[in-house]
Amino acid sequence: MINRVNSGIGKSGERLLARLASRESSTEGRSVAVGSNAARSADAEILVSNDLAIHDANGNLEITAAGRSHLARLEVARSGSEVDPFLAQHLELSQRELGAGTGRACARVDTAESPLVWLARRKGRDGRALIEPVQLQAGERLRADFTRAQLMPRVTANWMSSVAQDRRSGGVAAFNDAVIAARQEVRQACDSVGPEFIGLLLDVCCFLKSLEDVERERRWPARSAKVVLQLALDRLARHYGYAAEARGKKRAAVRTWLAADTAFVLGE
Fold first, then answer.
1. Is 19 a residue whose pLDDT tops 70?
2. Phi, then psi, of 243 in degrees rounded to 5
């Protein structure tokens, strides 16, 4: 199902609004002169009447916050996304390939909700990202396993609990093989990382707590959580077998099974 947003300002009005948005990051100034063009003047008045743009002190046109949100909704609707445009305008959506119970699958995710993605986008004083790609991959895998394992606590009442449960309606039978396998993956990751780091990883990767919240709750010094998180992600990446680069022999040895009284001979 494709969400459609009726702009109500026409194609020419949409083009003028998009031009106003592009001028915000331009060195030529944020406003656009309307001039004596009758069509542009009509579009400008429509934008102003809908609170999508305003006139500055010189009579030029500037986009408003409502205008930027309107453009965001139009972009989402035209992309064919199933996410509601009014919700999507507050998100940073992107396509990502995620591991599912039956293999790999593409999904639309909100990159702004993950503290790890935020760290991966930022660079330190040395010009390097605050966390490496393999660290981000390991943290996101733990989050995916945690979600599939259905370990997140409920925040609302379970109205199905008052209904008689059977094998067709859920209950114990709802914990299928995929859920059990995901819980085993999470348990193995916890055992491998150790009690020193797993609490921090669950808070940041799974419960999406910011590093500032972690430091305040644990009474850690400022900016110390980043260092501990990097160490924890390194250990988690090692558990999953992730590495920044592949290392090994240039040519692997040939392995074969032979009986005790035979020898491996190349044919002539």
1. yes
2. -145, 150
Around Cβ 155, how many Cβ atoms within 10 Å? 5
Are 148 and 178 within 8 A, CB to CB? yes
**Measured between alpha carbons, how far is 251 from 246 in angstroms, rounded to an integer?**
13
34-68-39 Cα angle (round to 5): 25
**pLDDT tens sequence across 107-133:** 555 555 688 888 888 888 888 888 999
Residue at token pair 């995929």: 178
Burial of 122 (0-12, 13-18, 19+ CB in 10 A): exposed
* pLDDT (tens digit per residue) in 152-178: 876 666 554 544 455 444 444 456 888
Taking the C-alpha atoms of residue 142 and residue 159, their distance in angstroms, rounded to an integer, is: 29
Domains of the chain plus CATH, in order, are 10-88 (1.10.10), 93-153+173-240 (no CATH)
The answer to whether the beta carbons of residues 50 and 9 sit under 8 Å apart is yes
**DSSP secondary structure string for all residues of 100-168:** ETTEEEEEEEEGGG-HHHHHHH-B-TTSSBSS-HHHHHHHHHHHHHHHHTT-SPPSS--GGGGSPP-TT
User: At what angle are helices 224-240 and 177-193 packed, to 10 degrees?
Assistant: 120
Per-residue pLDDT of 195-224, as tens digits, reads: 999 999 999 999 989 899 999 999 999 989
